[in-house]
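User: For my dataset I need records formatted as: sequence, then structure tokens, nothing else. Please produce one.
Assistant:
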Amino acid sequence: MANPERPRLERLTFKVKGFEQVRRSPEVEKELQAIVDEVMAQVQGGGREYAGGVEDGRTRSRGYVVTANFEAIKDEAHRNLLLRALGGVHRG
């Protein structure tokens, strides 16, 4: 016997393809590129070189920043500049 005071919960169905479309949308790619640019601006300099961009994945777009020379690799190993720069990115 159902409890009349307790509301019945409806079942939600998510369309995964819809989430994938949003994650690969031009708006999301634009925001990812802005984050990549901001991180690269924070870590460039002092002989360090970085490369970055946005790539389309199977289910989502992905932004990346990687070290591009030995000086950046060495500095990254000792100071974790990329991780610190990513933590300093505040997007609204």
